[in-house]
Design a protein that fits this description.
126 residues; globular
Length: 126
């Protein structure tokens, strides 16, 4: 089972969800973290190729988990969520401190705040 790990990587700062990929892996999932593709020199001008490559991988995944916190904006995660929904890929947002989101409600995406809810979702992918 291949799970796409969507999380804010374009805003810098520490990742409070650093433990999620390893935890998913310990439960039998292979986790794709798109952050590795974005480790390019800061002087490079952004081009669509990296995002397109990540979306190509996403379309081959069994599920997408998006990890978000209330005070971090991310255009990329929203694009990834929409891409998953467009391709009928099971999607879950994990955000323990996430406030009500009109956009996520519109997309019909489930938002959970407890790790146990993530593990239950993962079991449903099997």
């Amino acid at each position: 089972m291949l799970v796409y790990y969507a999380h804010p990587i374009d805003q810098g700062g520490d990742d409070p969800f650093y433990w999620v990929p390893e935890a998913l892996g310990s439960r039998g999932a292979v986790v794709y973290d798109p952050a590795a593709a974005w480790r390019v020199p800061v002087i490079n001008r952004p081009r669509p190729g990296l995002q397109q490559a990540n979306l190509d991988v996403l379309r081959r995944c069994d599920g997408l988990i998006a990890c978000l916190k209330r005070d971090t904006m991310s255009v990329g995660v929203v694009l990834e969520i929409q891409e998953a929904i467009n391709h009928d890929i099971p999607t879950l947002v994990f955000g323990p401190t996430l406030a009500t989101s009109w956009a996520l409600a519109y997309l019909g995406v489930e938002v959970v705040g407890e790790p146990e809810q993530v593990w239950h979702w993962l079991e449903g992918l099997r």
